[in-house]
Amino acid sequence: MSYENILVDQPAAGVGRVQLNRPQALNALNSPLMDEVNAAMQAFDHDETIAAMILTGNDKAFAAGADIKELAELTAMEMLAGQSLIERFDVKGIGKPIIAAVSGFALGGGCELAMLCDLIVASETAVFGQPEINLGIIPGAGGTQRMTRILGKALAMEVMLTDRRLNAQEALQHGLVSRVAPIDQYMDLAIEIASKIGGRSQVAVRLTKDAINQAYETTLNAGLEAERRNFMIAFASEDKDEGTRAFIEKRKAVWKNR
Ligand code: CAA
Fold this sequence. Notes:
Number of helices: 11
Bound molecules: acetoacetyl-coenzyme A
Shape: globular
């Protein structure tokens, strides 16, 4: 499939990369771009040779938010009808881990898109924020919920009520990102992490991702139940037999991914 607003490649074995590619608009997220992001991720999720994905922008901008020019033309009724830009941020249902590799601006919907991913690797120049308040609106793609769970109430309030922006070090300190690297190294780091995931049992990877996400989406009891269920599924896999045997025989496991 050919795309107009994103670039798609495989920078290392087992790693699929989706690069937002509207540099003239700081990768502002419009409907055609989000449709392409969803399609590319679905394609990688169904591709057996891919173990993990990277979602990235360019060095100047991951994404400066939802496309304000598109938002300006939309009515509330069109939004309510459910076919609009905001619905396209719903990238649920991807089983493989997605790493956001963020450099420069990750604002509004851009920050929300990064938080939709499973982990964020940032360059030292990354800036995270939710400036929707300046437009007379509020975050609409999960920002008030995901950011509050990550940063806590007080800081989330300040970020979203006053457009306080967090630099990479602050984002690291508050758990929004897992790693910060110099601008010429953040992509290599993201690829390295994706490749490490690719070296594991893909059964265990999927089940781990799912269980961790339950911690953000459900109550403790429901999350513990989901963990128990996923643990049992992993325990029934051929990879469990291989992984435990390989440890005892002091050799590297050869995963079957089933
Ligand atoms: N939508 C549409 N176009 C955008 C954009 C956006 N979110 N952000 C930047 N652009 C465009 C600008 O209009 C400009 O295009 P032109 O050259 O055609 O005028 C181009 O990208 C470059 O931008 P700037 O000249 O503004 O670049 P800068 O370096 O001076 O400033 C910036 C960078 C601080 C990020 C500034 O562009 C900015 O404030 N952008 C808007 C950020 C924002 O408010 N994001 C939230 C959007 S709403 C949202 O996301 C809702 C939601 O929850 C889903």
